[in-house]
UniProtKB/TrEMBL annotation, chains A, B:
Its cofactor is Mg(2+); thiamine diphosphate. One of its GO terms (cellular component) is cytosol. InterPro entries: THDP-binding, Transketo_C/PFOR_II, Transketolase-like_C_2, Transketolase-like_Pyr-bd, Transketolase_fam, Transketolase_N. Keywords: Magnesium, Metal-binding, Thiamine pyrophosphate, Transferase. It catalyses: D-sedoheptulose 7-phosphate + D-glyceraldehyde 3-phosphate = aldehydo-D-ribose 5-phosphate + D-xylulose 5-phosphate. The keyword Membrane does not apply. It comes from Acetobacter fabarum. This is Transketolase. Pfam families: Transket_pyr, Transketolase_C_1, Transketolase_N. Belongs to the transketolase family.
Length: 651, 651
């Protein structure tokens, strides 16, 4: 099977005729580029990269224009909108006769060969590395007879200079992604020394770096052929020559129709691939995974396996429950691929991170941003369900990549560990504060912050079913205090995004809402307040996005129509007005944390049951005093005597 | 003046006695480290770095323990909490007799020699580069007689592997920061090949990289001395030896008091520096800038100069006004240092970015994250007012660094260009959507989004006066439509964070709130609604943080007590409930943008005066219908006939 690797890609005897073909296609492409209106500087780059790109498409690329969604196609990633006209030209030249005319401004979503959305510089490099990793995963499972493609990137030099590209380059080299190749040329605006530095940094990251002259077809072909045999990821730098001229072609050699060599080669390779697929023993699995579906029995199997796993380790923290969920999911779904922000031999900082699936997760060390970018590429590749594991505090670094995930609505699952005020238990740390709000503000992203083991698993399932794209599970390493079984007034469940944990009968006086570790505090505060004669509802709201999608009647039933609303979360209040209204109370932290053991931080920011009760009672006393116009308020223990049916005057 | 450079730092004839001194201090430091409780892995690193750090402190570092805030001290940056015990040991050994005992868990804010807060890996490297750049700036202005220090970093290998450190390394080399030196050792958990790769990448980034044996004092001293003469930033990798033993010292050589060589050298250098300062012609400027103050006449001068500048370029976009503000500020305040995310010869992507101050701004190319990290260091260094210029869309990449700025409450000003739906005018771009909310959620950060030129300058002043730390100006390149002079009901001003642009007399029916380019749309919608007989107030709210700090009476006067509230912003609705209440209407975009000309995007997301009016009138009709229980609502043109004095029933 490995033998098919080279034959599919290389054309054994490069002849003069074939060179002429490339030059003809190049000429046609240049004509198309000339009509595309772009800025002067990008036009120079497009012209420089035209011959290398044409050579790739005409002679090497494994791509069938008649079926651009073919799973075993070569991925040709163009991460910047500046270079897209070149891809558009290639697609137009190779399109089968009668194909729909492409829009002149090609964009992600308009053609399946536009593999990723354009985004900040460097993201495309990371995504391409992710695609190469996905290919490696699938090739291991299905063999080279089904999975035998490569990932090409048409980058710009600004991509190479970014931190995320350098992180991804390190990971690509560490994971041995030798089927990834990057074509790049220096921008006319870049200092040549900077470009050389970029090449040197890729060399230092374990890449094979080659320089070719952008107008020398022989050199380009040699470099492209060399990438097919390379044992490292390859960077081909195409250096422009100011006064190079291409050989003139006879006039009758003008382009007349779909570009035959690419289409002919791609079509024939794909047909033989289809024959191999038809006879492949794992055909059903392959096709199901390519469509992104799971086995029908998955749901029950997963629940059973998760409960089994949890029985062996009954710690009950959301973090442990989520890892058990991931481990059992990875057993049931072979397409799960895990990248984890840990070093191979767990680094000391994260020594407490339980990664019991260390044989399945690929360690990405400190390169979280590169990792997140790669997860995008893995999701876009297809046939893979990518999961990322990282610390909650590192999400800021991954934000650009996460935005691309949400923007492309890709299914990527993140497990973010060490949430809450837990970090500081190791001393000298700052707590996440505004991260939750900043994530909830991102469209298409679902943020889950479960409170206990059962809630975690329900959130895991909801995350997998979240239709819009990526989902995050934000996890706490500390087990919550044991909770009484079902309380009175339990209504709904975590899969609805928010639900009633407990609620007394009759008119509601206070609704305490919390997520994650703060649910236990809310429950405790609820008990105290109930002892004071108040009718208290406790709501866990692990996922705002899912909760917001519930019918209004469900939301009202959970949040209640009257009474004081209190939000409790060890995070910024930003955005909580959505649930609390103008008169609600928020108990959290609107400042960066302090360095102290977790309990001390909870005390310091007043996120304790006692402090919550005080605030709530103070509000009732104030409103009671206002209502009665009596200068002395009744003591808290007498609150039950107040006529609560008149409810709270909104101050 | 340049000649003092080497003499201050080097001890010309390293003698055996001095080696013995270092070894004695090293032994004392090891004893202190042994008592510090740290994890096993970090303890190994601390032990490895002990001799190099001791050699630095004992023989090289320009630091007076009696005055750790001395402006011309060497900066010794320790970016990870894991390595802080080593700094604590140095501070304890060199502390003057009778000094207050240091807390065993040393932290940022507890001692002036802890230069930066610990944060995500790599941030400290960038901050140190920023300090070296600040030193370079100040040395150019005041000469080596006043500014002659260096920046040392005690890094970990995880720092080196991050994208932000690599970006900062490139910038450090590009800016010629040869007074920056990094000491690092491999972590016992890191693959040695990865560490070698890291060193190679720094070499490829134009750094001088040296390997020394961590127990070889001679080698260490030679490497440290070499950094003093280096023409590049230096990385000294201290390689641990498993079976190295340090020479035994006689028992009576135990430490008894403050470590004399460091204190003696530092004290003597500082005293001669004080003498030079006393006679320096620019002493007053130096001292004022070190205290972070501006000239008393600054405020008026700035306004005058800004108006002059604007007269020459009366385009009126907030972006142009902000750049005029920066340019005039840089003329008046010599301590302003500007880093801009543009390449030296403006890259094509940003060709439309007006940087009229290209001679003062230092170009950081695509390395925004490294740039933002450096701005932190520049602010922490003192004597510099750092300003960063970048595109609005790149703020996600800078987020980790920005968080450090806010956490340390450093004064850094950012000008973020190309906000709003403007980007897509160049075709093929995505608009910022959730960025505003994610920034507003960050504590201590003030986010300004001015609407017109005058508002921009008022925001500039407010940003400079924002007491809590960093401030962002979010700028639009398109000029707003001309606005009528003062309207009826104008109240307050942009420096209050939010103000009334116009308001009819009598009871308010609708309050339209907007920021930035959407203020013009709100004004237009207000006119239409007023024509329908509604009493409309238009509010511009350029800065939520400043507005939230105004007295409640002011906020109520601006927002009004009754009537419908409508928020208009071409961004995510997240967080707007704070101002709109539960029943307000938000007009914006809760999805990622589309690629189209700006006006088409406004149309597509319904952010137009017409669409706003429709929504408002529909709400009035619905509530009117509800109130009257009449099945047919009156036509909009008859709305004035409704008894509006009963105001709107909240639905």
């Amino acid at each position: 099977m490995a033998g098919t690797s080279s034959t599919d890609h290389t054309i054994p005897h490069a002849s003069h005729t074939q060179d002429a073909l490339v030059l003809r296609m190049d000429k046609a492409a240049r004509a198309l580029l000339a009509s595309a209106t772009t800025e002067e500087d990008t036009r120079t780059e497009l012209q420089t990269m035209c011959l290398p790109m044409t050579a790739l498409w005409c002679r090497i690329l494994r791509f069938d224009p008649a079926m651009p969604t073919w799973p075993d196609r070569d991925r040709c990633v163009v991460p910047s909108s500046a270079m897209l006209p070149l891809l558009a030209a290639m697609l137009r030249l190779t399109a089968p006769a009668g194909a729909q005319e492409l829009s002149p401004t090609l964009e992600y979503g308009q053609h399946p060969a536009v593999e990723i959305a354009t985004g900040p510089a460097g993201q495309g490099m990371a995504a391409a590395a992710g695609m190469a990793l996905a290919e490696q995963h699938l090739a291991k499972r299905y063999g080279r007879s089904l999975v035998n493609h490569r990932t090409w990137v048409l980058a710009r030099d600004s991509d190479l200079a970014t931190g995320v590209a350098l992180e991804a380059a390190q990971l690509a080299s560490r994971f041995g992604l030798n089927r990834m190749a990057v074509l790049v040329c220096p921008s006319p605006l870049t200092d040549p020394a900077d470009f050389s530095d970029s090449l040197a940094r890729f060399g230092a990251s374990g890449w094979s770096v080659r320089k070719v002259r952008a107008h020398d077809l022989g050199g380009i072909m040699a470099a492209l052929q060399a990438t097919l045999r390379a044992r490292k990821p390859t960077l081909v730098a195409c250096m422009p020559e100011c006064c190079a001229t291409l050989p003139d072609l006879p006039a009758e050699e003008e382009l007349t129709g779909p570009w035959s060599p690419t289409a002919r080669r791609g079509g024939s390779i794909r047909r033989s691939w289809l024959r191999r697929l038809a006879q492949h023993r794992a055909r059903a699995d392959f096709e199901r995974e390519q469509s992104g579906k799971a086995r029908q029995t998955m749901r029950e199997d997963w629940g059973r396996l998760w409960r089994q796993t949890m029985r062996a380790a009954p710690d009950g923290s959301s973090q442990q429950a989520a890892f058990a969920g991931l481990r059992s999911l990875a057993i049931l779904r072979q397409d799960v691929a895990i990248l984890a922000a840990t070093s191979s031999t767990r680094s000391s900082r994260r020594a407490n991170l339980p990664i019991p699936f260390s044989n399945t997760a690929q360690p990405c060390g400190i390169q979280e941003h590169g990792m997140a970018g790669m997860l995008n590429g893995m999701a876009r590749h297809g046939g893979i369900l990518p999961c990322g594991v990282a610390g909650m505090m590192t999400i800021d670094r991954m934000r650009s990549a996460l935005r691309m995930t949400a923007l492309m609505r890709s299914k990527v699952l993140y497990l973010l560990t060490d949430d809450g005020l837990a970090l500081s238990d190791n001393g000298g740390g700052w707590q996440p504060v505004e991260q939750l709000a900043s994530l909830r503000a991102m469209p298409h992203l679902a943020v889950f912050r479960p409170a206990c083991a059962d809630e975690t698993f329900a959130c895991w399932q909801a995350a997998l079913n979240w239709p819009q794209g990526p989902a995050l599970l934000i996890l706490c390493p500390h087990p919550p205090p044991p909770r009484a079984a079902r309380r009175t007034g339990h209504y709904g469940g975590p899969s609805h995004g928010g639900y009633l944990i407990s609620c007394g009968a009759g008119e509601r006086h206070v609704t305490l809402m919390a997520s994650g570790p703060e649910v236990a505090i809310a429950t405790q505060a609820g008990q105290h307040l109930a002892e004071q004669g108040l009718n208290v509802a406790v709501v866990s709201i692990p996922c705002w996005e899912v909760f917001a999608q519930q019918p209004a009647a469900y939301r009202t039933a959970v949040l209640g129509q009257e009474g004081l609303r209190v939000g409790i979360e060890a995070a910024s209040s930003f955005g909580w007005e959505r649930w609390l209204g103008a008169d609600g109370i928020f108990v959290g932290m609107d400042d960066f944390g302090i360095s102290a053991p977790a309990n001390a931080v909870y005390e310091r920011f007043g996120i304790t049951a006692g402090a919550i009760c005080e605030k709530v009672l103070a509000r009732f006393l104030a409103s009671g005093a206002q209502k009665d116009s009596s200068p002395t308020a009744p003591p808290p223990s007498r609150l039950e005597a107040l006529d609560m049916s008149l409810t709270i005057t909104r101050s």
